[in-house]
Amino acid sequence: MIAQLDTKTVYSFMESMISIRKYVDQGKAYGYSALGIMDVDNLYGSYYFIKECQKQEIQPVLGLEVTVHHKEELVNLRFLALSNHGYRNLMKLSTLKMTGKKEWTDFYSYLEDVCVIVPYYSAIDSLDLGQDYYIGVYPDTPQSDFSHPILPLYRVNSFQSEDLETLQMLRAIKENVTLREVDVQSQQGLFLPAHRLEQVFQEKFPQALENLSGLIGGTTYEIDSSLKLPRFNPERPAVEELRERAIKGLEQKAYSIQFVRLVWKKNYL
Fold first, then answer.
1. Helix %, strand %, coil % for the chain, to 5?
2. Those residues with Cβ within 8 angstroms of residue 12's Cβ, 6 or more apart along the chain or in another chain
3. What is the pLDDT, as a whole number, of residue 47?
4. 139-188 pLDDT, tens per residue?
5. Strand, helix or coil at 27?
6. Closest Cα to residue 59, out of 221, 195, 211?
7. pTM, 2 dp
8. d(CA 234, CA 254)
């Protein structure tokens, strides 16, 4: 089996053109039975991603990209949640990163039911995390006798080649540089049909496909569908609705404070 794992959505700040609903809809049309997301540092899109996958009867695979300090070097990692418990740990890992934690030792305690993946780089054989991990291989990764089991990774951040100009502009804004200074060509990853992606890895890294099938075959998540998340009217400017809700909340709070003061005076003064 093949699953598109290393997908950045619009929740990866200024790095992607991938909206979740379109991604899942197109994934269904492309023949995927499993799809993943691996946004940078955050899981903001995870709930909606699971819900959209459920609608399309696609297996969701939740991931996260994080860069940590380990023995005086920066190590780029991918995490995959392998169960509900793993999903909860993934949220803890994300929270640690978003609150400023950077050392690998900060994350080490929350890896139960979480798969650790290290994207291939030339010196990876010398990497000791004190933890089992997979090596993530990409279509352009050189073939080798790898020191750890491998998994297929392919970075996706756009639906069509025409998105390149927009991605270039977003990166220039994010990095505060000119458009000429942005090398985004090598970083654009187009969403590919399942058979094409599977063919690439079947020819070069067939073991990665076998390992993937064995790893995520039974992965499921249960979420509380009664969870009440904020709902906004897409027909109105967000700033107007947020202002309206903030004012209403302040008014309710002021009323509550006034009521408490009256009760206090009546009973205790």
1. 45, 15, 40
2. 39, 40, 42, 65, 157
3. 93
4. 999 999 999 999 999 999 999 888 888 887 887 887 788 877 777 655 66
5. helix
6. 221
7. 0.81
8. 29
